[in-house]
Sequence to fold (149 residues):
Amino acid sequence: MMHTPCRRIVRADVPPAFRVRGINAPLLLCWPNAALGSGADYGVDFSGLLDRGERIVAAEAQCDGASIAWVSMFGPVVALWTQWSASGPQQVMISVRTSFDVTLDTSVSIVVRPAPSLITPAVPAYAPNAFLLGAAIVPDASGTPLIFG
Fold:
């Protein structure tokens, strides 16, 4: 089964319809608002920044106002499970390394409402594209490196 975050994927590049020659506008990425204590999977699509034949080989995410359970790759999409522990505007920094040894960094904003979530989701221990084999976790064929538990 292939899992991708639903409705919470943002593109890490400017879509062609919004590009204007000679203007290099800053890229502002935003996920939909969330409630304090809520958790979900979020994604960033790097396909517009990758060259032909290039793929993501490593990804990392950091956020001071959230607990990140896992970060994984689904083709050109970097997905992460985040549970929000602080209200207000939050910034998630995502860094990826590609097969051409290029590092791409982006920042995504989200507003976490101070009202607590009515349902607190269980935090998943592993990314949905990981297969468990005893103490070893072997991800699917999407290019994610072998992880040992």
Observations:
- The chain has a mean pLDDT of 82.
- The chain has one domain: 9-117+126-148.
- The domain at 9-117+126-148 is CATH 2.60.40.10 (Immunoglobulin-like).
